[in-house]
């Protein structure tokens, strides 16, 4: 790893892991959630177009207290890119398992504690214990160093941070109640699909996802729950708001921004979708951000703003996006 570039957070990563694909595109929601961002990075680093696999975004629903924490289905990653994801059994030192997998050309996905991840310096590093997933593609056990994908970047860590993430500190070793983390590895099982073959497979899978779309407008369900939400938000303050916004507005806005990217990708391959569908996805992405700011202001002023005009716009945009896309492809609910 002699060639390096400076990545976000002041860390360095190898040349070839600069932001790529959708991470290199200016977006309103530059970060989505740790799992989707990780895969956008992994696919971009392999020169693969992540947009082909974004059809699953049509299945997002409101789950009563949050929007679906949207994730690339493993089936789709296998089908489009030949990337097989398997659980890694951890029965020995975790870094020894990772060393073995990395030596085989695999990337290891590990649930880590952000407390020890220096790229989270502005949020959790050495302050809060927050679970997140990283993708490790380089490890030097002798030097206590790893290179890893996280969110929209590529980073390295070493020294005390290495001891922390792998639970090698004296206090963590002594805690018998500390469980092994959940670990997966990514194995390139087959060549990725390309060109029209990829587009055809993606379109077929989109029809399957559309059949599994919500049966009712999820924005309407969110709106019905919102009066109780704003009451709780005013009572509980800023710290709770940040958690709430991440799991509701960020998931909604980022999901539909990526769905808009997907419809644009389809048109590049001659699959006609009405431009109003992409425009409606962009409306949801932008208005979710507006709604987030309005809620923050309502909390600061302790005012129960139901944000009706924002919800009107979001509901209408949803009807003009997912249901309209299903109608274009004549896909009924499964």
Secondary structure elements and their pairing?
Elements: E1 4-6, E2 12-14, H1 34-45, H2 74-81, E3 83-87, H3 94-103, E4 107-113, E5 131-140, E6 145-150, E7 153-158, H4 159-165, H5 170-174, E8 183-188, H6 195-211, H7 218-236, H8 238-268, H9 275-301, H10 308-319, H11 322-328
Antiparallel strand pairs: 1-2, 3-8, 4-5, 4-8, 5-6, 6-7
Characterization of the model:
The N and C termini lie far apart (49 Å). The protein has 334 residues and is α+β, with helices and mostly antiparallel strands. It is built from eleven helices and eight strands. The protein is globular, with a radius of gyration of 21 Å. Helices cover 46% and strands 14% of the residues. The protein has a six-stranded antiparallel sheet. A two-stranded antiparallel sheet has the order 1-2. It folds into two domains: 4-30 and 83-188, no CATH class; 195-328, no CATH class. Residues 1-16 have low confidence and may be disordered.
